[in-house]
Write a structure and sequence with these properties.
By secondary structure, this protein is an all-alpha fold. The chain has helices spanning about 5-20, 30-55, 60-85, 90-95, 100-125. It is about 75% helix and about 0% strand.
Length: about 140
């Protein structure tokens, strides 16, 4: 057992060092902007996946598809308006600085994640819940 202790220490140290080298924390504003953009792209991809699942479930119901598309267009308008209200100045870069793209990406990702959660609820149907979601199966 005494012989294993140094191995665990060295292995743990190696793992910690290698993990640190794998992805260093962002150092520049450009790096931070790219990280935020990656977060946004991931959120948008997840939302698109769920949205497409809903579209596929209702493929035989053109009325449901039209309502889903209409709701999504309205949500995009809401999201864009909400972001505009959060940073109302017309000269965004001048007034909010180099952090502005990062802040917008993170805020947009957060709104997108919330929308994805709403869409996921439409994929569930609770048997016996007469007031629950009735999206087509």
């Amino acid at each position: 057992m005494r012989r294993l202790a140094p191995c665990f220490f060295v292995c743990g140290l190696t793992l910690t060092v290698s993990q640190g080298l794998a992805k260093p924390p962002p150092q520049t504003q450009s790096d931070l902007n790219m990280e935020a953009d990656h977060s946004l792209r991931s959120a948008e991809q997840q939302m698109a996946t769920v949205f497409n699942q809903l579209r596929n479930r209702a493929s035989a119901n053109p009325d449901a598809l039209a309502l889903l598309d209409k709701a999504q267009v309205a949500w995009v308008a809401y999201r864009d308006a909400q972001l505009g209200v959060m940073w109302p100045s017309p000269e965004k870069q001048a007034n909010y600085g180099t952090v502005f793209p990062m802040c917008v990406s993170y805020a947009r990702a957060e709104l997108t994640n919330k929308r994805t959660a709403e869409l996921k609820l439409m994929l569930k149907r609770d048997e016996g819940d007469v007031c629950g979601n009735a999206y087509p199966d």
